[in-house]
Design a protein that fits this description.
The protein is of the alpha/beta class. The chain folds into two domains: about 10-195 and about 235-265, Rossmann fold; about 195-235, no CATH class. The chain is built from eight helices and nine strands. About 45% of the residues are buried.
Length: about 270
Amino acid sequence: MDLGLGGRTALVTGSYRGTGAGVARVLAAEGATVLVHGLEPGQADATVAEITAAGGRAVAVTGDLYTEAGTAQLVAEVAALRIEGAPAHVDIVVNNWGRPEGSDWESSDSTSWHGSYDVNVVSAVRVTQAFLPAMREAGWGRVVFVSTVGATRPGDRIPEYYAAKGALPSVTVGLAKHLAGTGVTVNCVSPGMIATDEIIEMYTARAEQRGLPTDPASLGQVMLDEGMTNWSGRVCTPDDVGRFVAFVASEAAWHLDGAHLRFDGGASDAVT
């Protein structure tokens, strides 16, 4: 299927590593020019090099999304870009960046709750607001918020994080209603456990401590048994998430709007 992403420009926040890098790789493979975002200069260079070596188009952009000033820096860098001789126009925003920060119910306070909301919700709203006017003017755009299985099935730790991520499906529906009839769709993707480098490293260490094998199949089973089981019997990779996000952002998905899409192999075990 042709996803219709050729000639489109996609900004993927936090795409210098992990899940965001997987999304960036897939979007580039589908023909989009990907703006690979890092919080600091140089962070995105390795992912950009990987994409261009594979024949894709990617450009590094920088901005610390913790702050208004950092977001303004990102917007200014994008505005200064020239893609095939023309000013850059962002068609797709994938709000991937966030942090699983928090404490616990006993020690959390107003600062930690406000901080997690700012990092995981307000940062994405800042970025989205910056690029929406051009999408509306063009009559085509895609906004994707990346949440987590914890939006439906929150854990008992880091409640600030789960509450913040749980707000993104609501943000999605509200914004989709606001943009009705504009050609800009808004959707939310909530992955389950993802086999990022960090997760693999963590579970490898756990397996080694217990004398368990660490080949990919065995390690995947440890992740399912000790981390998060699901009906598929597999743990997805960042590129698996990328393929799903690429469809959500595609021309083919033009009628998908305001949806909360759980990409977790059934781990959330929920009807709605």
